[in-house]
Write a structure and sequence with these properties.
With 568 residues, this protein is α/β, with parallel strands linked by helices. It has two domains: 337 residues, Alpha-Beta Barrel (TIM Barrel), CATH 3.20.20.80; 75 residues, Golgi alpha-mannosidase II (Immunoglobulin-like). Helix content is 27%, strand content 15%. The chain is built from 17 helices and 20 strands. The strands form five sheets. Strands 11-10-9-5-2-1-13-12 form an eight-stranded parallel β-sheet, covered by helices on one side. Helix 11 packs parallel to helix 15. Bound molecules: 1-O-alpha-D-glucopyranosyl-D-fructose. The site of 1-O-alpha-D-glucopyranosyl-D-fructose has 14 residues, from loops. Belongs to the glycosyl hydrolase 13 family.
Length: 568
């Protein structure tokens, strides 16, 4: 990425809307398109450039819309195509782009393509999905007879026996999300046609759901055993298969080539390495603009996401440092703490106790937005929304969480023990309604919300922060404005400092002789700044999160103290 002609998204900030939980306009307890349209001024005030819209297509909602039954219609729960067009027009009128969530590794089992495919072994769409006989020498339907030993992301096997034809179909996620067979050129053509339809409607790009899974090892080999389970790890055969780059390059040619340069594409790639991301985001290869990688959001996980471990800052620095260095000369980083699949950042990486919630939320935001890449703000992150309080497994709605509870309790686990593993890790932490104000249901709906509102909304909400110059919201506004204005923030070379310090995260960004120093105390322990970073003392404070506090001392890095300094 040369600083001569950087793409527009190198100075942009993306805001993710999870429509189901954002804002409900018709009182049915589910967020919708009109609700989003009614909040565009909030997004414009925040200063974001792009909205990534999680799926709003027609769907049975088995996985909250990531199971699509009609790619070219809006689910009635969210509204209509006319309302989508109105949202798009109003967003564009504010200079905000809309990016759709493209879920084409799989469809819903109610998609007409799958209904036709499953109808018979000789259906013209049979080969649009992955169908296989039972394992050699075993009767269909007996445990272990599945064609491979792979475990689904949502518990259980990756194969579902279809009684109609006696064959199994593949589903890496829920059994209601059958995987499309991208080896079939008809599938690819149908997907590209649908993508062009959305671009012709005026959308500004796509976030591509698990796009690194569309190419699989065609011989579908078993994966290495997963300890403590009867399953194997299918990622060896389903992540970054042999034709991925071919498919992404073909998609670029068939869909994006020759179009308005103001588009943006971001590929969600669980398991991505820096090397793979370099290939995918190298502009010369014309595949994708950037990727969502998962390294840093797995550092606090043991054998599984439910096996929560303490995070070491040095591990986080090593991971971010590797990605900053690896994409410094080729490609581009996406920067995020959370999204609709991850627990809330201030609870996971910060300290959501009353003493430090505001300071740690603003510290984390400064740290993330100081890096080189495109920052993503997840709905509610801009006001420091935290993980919710869950009193029972019945409070949860997410299929991944509920399937895990069913599997664990079937194996004899105590529901209370399971609940303890859900609290820090469940995706539902990110899916409680956005907290707009202190009224009942946080101003999200006038009806009964589909999932409980976090009780802390009475204090933590947009209305309480909008006019507060020291709020989490104000700090996000300032960070986004700084990215828009400052070329060193946008494009400056990254250099990690203090790599071995367990509490302080510091780095520089340099461009054309200008150097910024970002220093963040990711702890409640004060540190003398001069001892840590002598060059930091006396420099110009560009943006800080605690300099307004009475106990602020330039010479001491206070609890969760974050500063962006311009070195003289
Ligand atoms: O997520 C892909 C994915 O890997 C997630 O399942 C993630 O690893 C896991 O949830 C972490 O707990 C995408 C979407 O973001 C997710 O919402 C969907 O459920 C999934 O794909 C299937 O479409």
């Amino acid at each position: 990425m040369t600083s001569a002609n950087p793409p527009w998204w190198t100075s942009a900030v993306v805001y993710q809307v999870y429509p189901r939980s954002f804002a409900d306009s018709d009182g049915d307890g589910i967020g919708d398109l009109e609700g989003i349209r009614g909040k565009l001024d909030h997004l414009a005030d925040l200063g974001v450039d792009v909205v990534w819209l999680s799926p709003v297509y027609r769907s049975p909602q088995d996985d909250n819309g990531y199971d699509i039954s009609d790619y070219q219609d809006i689910d009635p729960a969210f509204g209509t195509l006319d309302q989508f067009d109105a949202l798009l027009a109003d967003a564009h009128a504010r200079g905000i782009k809309i990016v759709m969530d493209l879920v084409v590794n799989h469809t819903s089992d109610e998609h007409p393509w799958f209904v036709e495919s499953r109808s018979s072994t000789v259906s013209p769409k049979r080969d649009w999905y992955w169908w296989r006989d039972a394992r050699e020498g075993m009767d269909a339907g007996t445990p272990g007879a599945e064609p491979t030993n792979w475990q689904s992301f949502f518990s259980g096997p990756c194969w579902e026996l279809d009684e109609t034809t006696g064959q199994y179909y593949l589903h890496l996620f829920s059994r209601r999300q059958p995987d499309l067979n991208w080896e079939n050129a008809q599938v690819r053509r149908a997907v590209y046609e649908m993508m062009r339809w959305w671009l012709d409607r005026g959308v500004d790009g796509f976030r591509m759901d698990v796009i690194n899974m569309i190419s699989k090892q065609p011989d579908l080999p078993d994966g290495p055993p997963i300890p403590g389970t009867p399953y194997g790890d299918g990622s060896v055969a389903t992540f970054f298969g042999p034709r991925l780059h071919e498919f992404l390059a073909e998609m670029h040619r068939e869909v994006f080539a020759g179009r308005d340069a103001d588009l943006i594409t971001v590929g969600e790639m669980p398991g991505a390495t820096v090397e793979q991301a370099r290939l995918v985001t190298d502009p010369a290869r014309a595949e994708l603009d950037m990727v969502f990688q998962f390294e840093h959001v797995q550092l606090d996980q043991g054998a599984s996401k439910w096996d929560h471990r303490p995070l070491r800052l040095t591990d986080l620095k090593a991971s971010f440092g590797r990605w900053q260095a690896g994409l410094a000369d080729v490609g581009w980083n996406s920067l995020y703490w959370d999204n609709h699949d991850q627990p809330r950042a201030v609870s996971r990486f910060g300290d959501d106790s009353p003493a430090y919630r505001r300071d740690s939320a603003t510290c984390l935001a400064t740290l993330l937005h100081g890096h080189r890449g495109t920052p993503y703000v997840y709905q509610g992150e801009e006001i420091g929304m935290a993980n919710s309080t869950w009193s029972s497994v019945r409070d949860f709605r997410d299929i991944e969480t509920l399937n895990h509870v069913a599997e664990a309790t079937a194996l004899g686990a105590d529901p209370e023990e399971v609940l303890a593993t859900l609290r820090p890790a469940s995706r539902d932490n990110a899916r409680t309604p956005v907290q707009w104000d202190a009224t009942e249901h946080a101003g999200f709906t006038t009806g009964t919300p589909w999932i409980g509102v976090n009780p802390d909304h009475v204090e933590w909400n947009v209305a309480a922060q909008r006019e507060d110059p020291h709020s989490v919201l104000a700090h996000h506004r300032a960070l986004i404005a700084l990215r828009h204005a400052d070329r060193t923030v946008q494009l400056g070379d990254f250099t990690m400092l203090l790599p071995d310090h367990e509490d302080v995260y510091a780095f520089t960004r340099s461009l054309d002789g200008d150097t910024l120093l970002v220093v963040c105390n990711v702890s409640a322990t004060p540190y003398p700044l001069a001892e840590l970073l002598p060059e930091a003392v006396g420099d110009e404070l560009v943006l800080g999160n605690r300099d307004h506090l009475p106990d602020h001392d330039d010479a001491v890095l206070g609890p969760w103290d974050a500063r962006i300094l311009r070195l003289r």
